[in-house]
Amino acid sequence: MELLLIRHGQSEADILDVHEGRADFSLTEIGEEQARKMAQFVKEHYKPEIILASPLKRAKKTAGILQEAISCELIEEEDLMELHNGVLAGLPRKEAMIKYPLPKGGRPLHVPIPEGESELDFRLRVERIFHKIIHDYQQYGRIAVVSHGGFISNFFKAFLNLPINSEAIFYTGDTGMHLVEISERGRIIKFLNKQDHLV
């Protein structure tokens, strides 16, 4: 099984300098164009058999553009959503630093963002959907997973069995793609954050 992990295109939050997370911003015109270029590239080189997507607007629209290009089933999975950042969602970053400053040394892993989820909750959710995908969708040779930067970074920690407190960060740019394989040979990373379609 191959998993093609795709981050959504540029969203309105990206240009407003606000915390996004569960704030449900739409794609910008640039984001939609990025998604169209990604969809054409995927159609030509890494066509999936099914698409799984976060239901948040920016990911759902990106996945919809991909679905239009390749004509396959698209299923929304709530567990593919970005970190539930509670009171920070949609808040300007400068304002958030004043209203909700991080505790000295950072927020403990088990402590949730007010009205949101903790890093431990987030990792558990990522682990849950990772195992659901490899079990419930095992009949597919290649699956596209359209989600968010923070989710994808956490997904790689689950994929590589890294500890929850690992300092590793797996960056994904707008409509960046990662291809991984799960087979008898093990868990294989084929490429990370490919953005050739935007060049």
Count of individual domains: 1
Strand order of the largest sheet: 3-2-4-1-5-6
Rg, rounded, reads 17 Å
Low-confidence stretches: none
Structure description:
This protein is α/β, with parallel strands linked by helices and 199 residues long. It has a single domain, classed as Phosphoglycerate mutase-like (Rossmann fold), CATH 3.40.50. It is built from six helices and six strands. It has a six-stranded mixed β-sheet with strand order 3-2-4-1-5-6. Strand 2 (50-53), helix 3 (57-70) and strand 3 form a beta-alpha-beta unit. Helix 2 crosses helix 3 (57-70) and helix 5 (119-136) packs across helix 6. The longest helix has 18 residues, at 119-136. It is globular. It starts with a strand and ends in a 5-residue tail after the last strand. The model has no long low-confidence stretch (mean pLDDT 96).
Helices and strands, with pairings:
Blueprint: E1 2-7, H1 12-16, H2 29-45, E2 50-53, H3 57-70, E3 73-76, H4 93-99, H5 119-136, E4 142-147, H6 149-159, E5 177-183, E6 186-194
Parallel strand pairs: 1-4, 2-3, 2-4
Antiparallel strand pairs: 1-5, 5-6
Helix pairs in contact: 2-3, 5-6
What are the salient characteristics of this protein?
199 residues, alpha/beta, Rossmann fold, 6-stranded mixed sheet, 6 helices
